[in-house]
Amino acid sequence: MGKHATKCAITPHGCDFFTPDTTDSLTRAFYEARMKDLRERLKPKRYDHSVRVAETARMLAQHYGVDEKAAQLAGLLHDWDKDFDDADEQMRARIFEIDIHPTVIETMPRLLHGPTAAAALGRIYPQISPEVLQSIARHTTGAVGMSELDMIVYIADALEPGRDFEGLNELRDVVGEVELETLFLRTFRHIMLSLIDGNRRFHPQTATIWNYYIERERTRNQLKG
């Protein structure tokens, strides 16, 4: 990364490729310009994934009455920082002063690309809304108090058609049939179980997030009788 850079940003080494742009972030022109940037920033497979996440997010937004353009843009940009290596991600997290658990910075750097992307994009393109940036920041781990847009980007990242993990089709089949928060909880559970099956560590807040949403789900079910 960096050899095609048109402008230096706050980055660990060299330059961080992006194209200066002051147009409205929800216009087609802005979207297509960022697609071109992503072709330079990301490996081809990750670029294709980002485009699929964008389309999946737009579809989910349509089903659940969320701003489709915001969802599509957030889906496109969610992996803006994914191709940095661990050391660079750790340095970016410190440079941008990301408010995140120190354990994550030191031992789980692959989870940093959401928060660092949101921080970088917010500086480069201040016209991107805080809601879109927050959904990018939260797509790696989830959070307590997710917005509808946050949940859509998180779900889209997991359910985009290029993913072929066992159990995803069952989640895809209930899109639009269950409430958005229920779909988020089921997706979160699927990812959590995948981490367990792979003997991988959890983010320090995973249990807190799970407990928060499972309690909300139980309350909703009780109210339905």
Return the CATH topology: Hypothetical protein af1432
Shape: globular
Number of domains: 1
**Low-confidence residue ranges:** 1-9
Q: What is the helical fraction, as a range of percent?
A: 55-70%
| Corresponding CATH superfamily | Hypothetical protein af1432
Assembly context of the chains: single chain
**Which class of secondary structure composition applies to the elements?**
mainly alpha
Terminal CA distance reads 55 Å
CATH architecture: Orthogonal Bundle
Q: Order of helices and strands, N to C?
A: HHHHHHHHHHH
Gyration radius, to the nearest Å? 17 Å
Q: At the first level of CATH, what is the class?
A: Mainly Alpha
Largest sheet: number of strands, sense, barrel closure: none
- How many individual helices? 11
Mean pLDDT: 92
The total beta strand count reads 0
In percent terms, what proportion of residues is strand?
under 5%
Defining key terms:
225 residues, 11 helices
How does this model look, in words?
With 225 residues, this protein is mainly α. The protein has a single domain (28-224), classed as Hypothetical protein af1432. Helix content is 61%, strand content 0%. The protein contains eleven helices and no strands. Residues 1-9 have low confidence and may be disordered.
